[in-house]
């Protein structure tokens, strides 16, 4: 498979909502979740600066709340945020239409939960003929469900890569990486990402 072409990418942020994991959920590793949020916010900022379209979903926002502020605050002006009722983004007609409207054929998926909404979305988008890559350190499910979701994706031939790998696929050359860092020095690298 070739490297990911930023000019053919759209970023799809799945269900990273304020109340998705209420305090009563004791199985949630809050530090891992916050690290994931920071990585997604950073990826979103990079996507904005590279003019990569962004589609955001919110599963049952009346119950799960809206997208967390750390991500909402860095969304590009043209980002589309839509409610999601079916687990797979492609199975929601408005979201599928927003994805198609980007004109891109490579979908970069981040968010929650790795084993359900992210996996369902990746599988359905792949089945619909899209190239799909899941950013494994910018996706989350509690406990062993994250790894199970990644195994399921691998079994279906769906690509996974890290935040670092995605960035370097997008910039491609030493000169472009250095120019990006020089131009966007304000963009702090999130925890666990070594560029």
Automatic annotation (TrEMBL):
InterPro entries named in the record: Hydrolase_YcaC-like, Isochorismatase-like_dom, Isochorismatase-like_sf
Pfam families per the UniProt record, alphabetical: Isochorismatase
Domain Isochorismatase-like span(s) in chain numbering: 9-164
Top-level taxon of origin: Bacteria
Name by which UniProt lists this protein: Isochorismatase family protein
